[in-house]
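I am writing to request your help with a piece of structural work I have in hand. Here, with my thanks, is the record as I have it:
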Amino acid sequence: MTQTHFTILDAPSDADLARCVHCGLCLNQCPTYRITGLETESPRGRLFLIRGFAEGTQQINAQFAEHIGLCLGCRNCETVCPSGVRFGHLLEAARGEMIAQKKIGRIERAARWIIFKQIFPHPARLNALAALIALYQRMGLQKILRASGALKLFGRIGALEALLPSRRVTTFRFRTSRVSEMEHGKQGALFTGCIMRAAFGDIHDATVNVLEQNDWRITAPTQQVCCGALHLHAGEREWAKELARQNIDAFARSKQNENSNDAPIIVNAAGCGAVLKEYGELLRNDPVYAQRAHEFSARVLDVSEALAQTPLANMRAQKLRVTYQEPCHLAHGQQIKKQPREILNQVPGIDFVEMTASDRCCGSAGIYNVLHPEIANVLIDEKMANIAATGAEVVVTGNIGCLLQLEYGKSRSGWTGRVMHLVELLDAAE
């Protein structure tokens, strides 16, 4: 294949498109194929469509968009593929081409412009949105509406409300004083992101607490922005690149922040971490940022990678049975599987129990559970059944999307345990 019909600048290579040998090992690892049984809803079937477009035998039409859009992007197929097919990159390129060719309606384009361009890149606007959700919680409206069942009367809006966090919404404000109190230790810079920073400040607080307890000296550059993961997964490649450049600049050495160019960038959201580690790929054709992007990505560590470097310090016993839900973009996007388990097994008193199919997607997948609730609900119900079968009191995960989906699944299933981020459990054990 020497000619491609892709128009995006960073189109897939011939080698990437030709790598699949059609062995079928990916089929039963694919959530949508397992549910539908359709070849077109499998990685192999979707790759056939993408290759057909590149070769000029397939158009980007409604059917193409439906099959490409129904993929969760979990990348489980990559883990089991013997040929090394980079399906995540091919999927993102196909969605990018759909956007480049304007193969979406005007209403969806307007919604994307508002959400991806006018909200997520702007911390102050996200703070305002988080404040409204916090007010909704503090006034007791969330508990009243959920307990009464009245939300069922609001149709899709009520269903969307069920995906809002039930935990208290807090905005992260980094306390520089605790940095100055540490005169030694490994230096690291916390990636705070967008939704995590605006609404889940307690998880960032726990992250900093645990890292500092384990001899890390943490900073948090103030000019950083959204990682661009949601943009990239939705095909908005140029917007994702814009955010990537801003983050590269924010974490570069400067007089305004204390982190050096080689200090690790620590991330506690698996979806963010996967994209940050792929900035080098995203900006590979950028004459100014290509090399800087590769250097940036080389610095990125998931918080479990950072904590696994040395034995954990000063841990109190926790008499709990715990199981672990693997975020797709940690297990399959970053190939990080053993570190969270090693960390959990260091906490005294923890009875760690593996669940069946811990690395299968829970159905969150960014905003997939909003766009395709019929598939997402099947996946979360399956996940909750596997959690309940372990007898665990706590399910731990490492991504905010998974955490929210598990809390939603808890309300659907009646499971009475707790959903926690890994660092929350560790913070409680200090």
About this structure: The first strand starts at residue 186 and ends at 190. The chain has four domains: 14-100, 108-161, 177-307, 320-428. Strands lie at 186-190, 216-219, 265-267, 300-302, 320-324, 350-352, 394-397, 418-421.
